[in-house]
Write a structure and sequence with these properties.
Subcellular location (chain B): Cell membrane
Order of helices and strands of chain B: HHHHHHHHHHHHHH
InterPro entries (chain B): Electron_transfer_protein, NrfD, NrfD-like
Strand content of chain B: under 5%
CATH class of chain A: Alpha Beta
Largest sheet of chain A: 3 strands, mixed
Oligomer: heterodimer
Radius of gyration of chain B: 21 Å
Number of domains of chain B: 1
CATH topology of chain A: Alpha-Beta Plaits
Protein name (chain B): Cytochrome c nitrite reductase subunit NrfD
Distance between the termini of chain B: 28 Å
Strand order of the largest sheet of chain A: 8-1-9
Order of helices and strands of chain A: HEHEEHEEHEEHEHE
Main location (chain B): membrane
Largest sheet of chain B: none
Radius of gyration of chain A: 20 Å
Keywords (chain B): Cell membrane, Membrane, Transmembrane, Transmembrane helix
C-alpha cells in the first residue's frame, strides 16, 4: 500500500485527536467561571454546622453524607491542647477521574467548573466511586444514583445564595468563589495565604484549597 | 478468625465486591477459551483434520459464550439500577474504559455466535432439512469463516486485556494502576481458557485424556504458565521498586493477612505449583486418566479464580 504524506498526516492527526479530546474538555469554557473552595484549617473549630447545613439544604439521606469534618488529635498539653480539623468533600477536579471513567457520561462538569452527576443517566456501576481518589462519592439510597457535593448548584446557587456550608460556618473557615475572577474572595485569599491541595500528584487539579493548620505535631 | 475474614472482605476503601471478581474471571475464561479453541482448530486443520470434531473446539463453543454471558449478567445484577443497564448502550463516553468494554463485549458476543455457526456449519446443516432459510444463512456465514476467525483472535485478546484496563484506570490504587495488569489478566485468562476447554471437552464431549488435542493444549499451557509467573514477578517487583504507597500495597498483598494466604496458597500453590508437581511426578498410567487431567484443570481454574479475587480485594486495600 502506498501511503501518501497527506494520508499519513491525516491518520496521525486522527489518532492524536483521541487522547487530546479528553484533555481539552478540561480546558474548555475559559469564559465561564471556575468555582472553588478554600478551607481554612486555622479557623475551623469542628462544630460541624457545615455538614448539618449541607444535609438540610440538599436533602442528603441520613445514611450518607456529602461533607465530613475529620477530627484528629488532641495534640499538645494544658493550654496548648488542640485538635486538627480537615474537610472531606468533593474537590471538583479540573481533570476529574469520575468524569473520565463514567461509561454513560452521567458525571459531568458544568459551565462554572462544578463537577456533578445526572441522576437519571447514572446506572450505578460505581466505577466513579472506585476512581475517585478523594473517596467522597456515595450511592444515594433513594435515587440509587451516585451523588456527592455539587457546591449547592441545584439548590442555593440557583437562588443566588452561597453554598450552605459557606453560609453556616460561624468562623468563616470556608470561602467560596470564582478562580477566574481576580477580585473574588477565593482569589484574594489564595494570593494572601499559603495553601495546599490533596493528592495533586495524581494530576486531578483539585479545587478545594486548604490553609494548613500551622501548628506542629507533637512527636 | 471470623473477624479476620470479615475484615478482609469488608474494609473502608472497598468499593467493588466479589461479583466483579467473578465477572473478571468469567470474561478471562471466555477470551482464553476462544484463543485456545482457535489454536486447536488451526492445529487440526494443519494436519488435515476437521476442526469442529475436536472436544476442545466443542468445549470452546460451550464455555466461551456461557462464561461471558453469565459474567455480564452478574455485572448487570451488580448495578444499583440493573433495569437501566441499556442506558450504557445509548449514552456514550469515549474516555471511559467501561464504555469501550460495553461496545467491545457486544461485538465480541455477536461475532462469537456467528463464528461458531460457521465452524459448526456441517452439523448445523441438519436444521436446513426442515428450515431451508437456515442453510442459506449458514452458507453465507461459512464464506466469512476466515475473516471472522481472525477478528475473534483480536476480539478475544481485547476482552482478555480489557478486564485489566478496567482496573488499571483507577489511579488511586497502586495494584490496579499498573501497566502489567492487563497483560497478566490476558495471560492468566488464556491458561484458565485452556483448563476450561479441556475440562468441558472431556466432561461433555468425551475427549480422551491422552488425545492429540489435549497434548497440544498442554504444550501451549507450559509457555503460558511460565509467562504468567514472570508477569506476576514483574508486577510485584515493579510495585516494590516504585516505593512509597506502591511498595506498601505489595507488602500488604503478599505479606499481610487473609489475602496473602489466598495468593500463596490459592494462586501460587493450588493454581501453579501443585498441578505441575502432579504432572511431573505422577506415573504415566495416572497422567492419562481423565479424572487426573480433570483434577489438574480444576486446580488451575481455581488458581485463576483466586487470582482475580486476590487482585480485586488486595488491590482495594491500599489506596493513595
Amino acid at each position: 500500500m502506498k501511503l501518501s504524506r497527506r494520508h499519513f498526516l491525516a491518520g496521525g492527526a486522527a489518532c492524536a485527536a483521541i487522547p487530546v479530546a479528553t484533555l481539552v474538555t478540561a480546558e474548555e469554557e475559559k469564559t465561564g467561571k471556575n468555582l472553588a473552595l478554600v478551607f481554612d484549617q486555622t479557623k475551623c473549630i469542628g462544630c460541624e454546622a457545615c455538614s448539618q447545613a449541607c444535609r438540610e439544604a440538599n436533602n442528603v439521606p441520613a445514611q450518607v453524607s456529602r461533607l465530613n469534618i475529620v477530627r484528629e488529635g488532641p495534640y499538645g498539653e494544658g493550654n496548648d491542647k488542640h485538635y486538627r480539623f480537615d474537610r472531606q468533600s468533593c474537590v471538583h477536579c479540573e481533570t476529574a477521574p469520575c468524569i473520565a471513567v463514567c461509561p454513560t457520561g452521567a458525571c459531568f462538569r458544568d459551565e462554572d467548573g462544578v463537577v456533578d452527576v445526572t441522576a437519571n443517566r447514572c446506572v450505578g456501576c460505581q466505577y466513579c466511586i472506585a476512581a475517585c481518589p478523594y473517596r467522597v462519592r456515595y450511592v444515594d439510597p433513594e435515587t440509587k444514583a451516585v451523588d456527592k457535593c455539587d457546591l449547592c448548584r441545584k439548590t442555593r446557587l440557583k437562588e443566588g445564595k452561597l453554598p450552605a456550608c459557606v453560609e453556616a460556618c460561624p468562623t468563616q473557615a470556608v470561602v467560596f468563589g470564582d478562580l477566574n475572577d481576580p477580585k473574588s474572595d477565593v482569589a484574594k485569599l489564595l494570593r494572601a495565604k499559603q495553601t495546599y491541595r490533596d493528592k495533586v500528584s495524581l494530576g486531578t487539579k483539585p479545587k478545594l484549597y486548604k490553609v494548613p493548620h500551622g501548628k506542629g505535631k507533637v512527636i | 478468625m471470623d473477624n479476620a475474614i470479615s475484615s478482609a472482605l469488608h474494609f473502608e476503601t472497598m468499593v467493588w465486591p466479589w461479583p466483579i471478581a467473578i465477572y473478571l474471571f468469567l470474561a478471562g475464561v471466555s477470551a482464553g477459551a476462544v484463543l485456545i479453541g482457535i489454536a486447536v482448530k488451526l492445529y487440526r486443520e494443519s494436519r488435515g483434520q476437521i476442526g469442529y470434531e475436536s472436544g476442545i473446539v466443542k468445549g470452546m463453543a460451550l464455555i466461551a459464550p456461557i462464561a461471558v454471558i453469565i459474567g455480564l449478567a452478574i455485572l448487570i445484577i451488580d448495578l444499583t439500577k440493573p433495569l437501566e443497564f441499556w442506558k450504557m448502550m445509548i449514552y456514550w463516553n469515549p474516555s471511559s474504559v467501561m464504555f469501550w468494554g460495553v461496545m467491545l463485549l457486544s461485538v465480541y458476543i455477536m461475532v462469537l455466535f456467528l463464528f461458531l455457526a460457521a465452524v459448526f456449519y456441517t452439523p448445523l446443516m441438519a436444521i436446513d432439512r426442515r428450515y431451508p432459510i437456515v442453510g442459506t444463512v449458514l452458507a453465507l456465514l461459512k464464506r466469512f469463516e476466515k475473516p471472522m476467525q481472525t477478528s475473534m483472535i483480536f476480539l478475544a485478546i481485547a476482552v482478555g486485556a480489557y478486564t485489566g484496563f478496567l482496573l488499571s484506570a483507577l489511579k488511586a490504587f497502586p495494584i490496579f494502576n499498573n501497566p502489567v495488569l492487563p497483560i497478566l489478566f490476558l495471560v492468566s485468562g488464556a491458561s484458565s481458557g485452556a483448563a476450561a476447554t479441556m475440562l468441558f471437552g472431556m466432561l461433555c464431549f468425551k475427549e480422551k485424556a491422552d488425545s492429540q488435542d489435549i497434548h497440544f493444549v498442554h504444550k501451549i499451557e507450559k509457555p503460558v504458565l511460565m509467562t504468567e509467573i514472570f508477569l506476576l514477578f514483574a508486577f510485584f517487583l515493579g510495585l516494590v521498586f516504585a516505593g512509597g504507597v506502591s511498595a506498601e500495597a505489595a507488602r500488604v498483598a503478599l505479606m499481610g493477612d487473609f489475602w496473602s494466604y489466598i495468593f500463596w496458597g490459592g494462586v501460587v500453590f493450588c493454581g501453579m505449583v501443585l498441578p505441575w508437581l502432579l504432572q511431573w511426578f505422577s506415573p504415566r498410567s495416572l497422567t492419562h486418566k481423565p479424572g487426573f487431567v480433570a483434577a489438574l484443570c480444576v486446580l488451575s481454574l481455581s488458581g485463576v479464580f483466586a487470582l482475580r479475587h486476590f487482585i480485586l480485594y488486595a488491590g482495594q486495600m491500599t489506596a493513595i
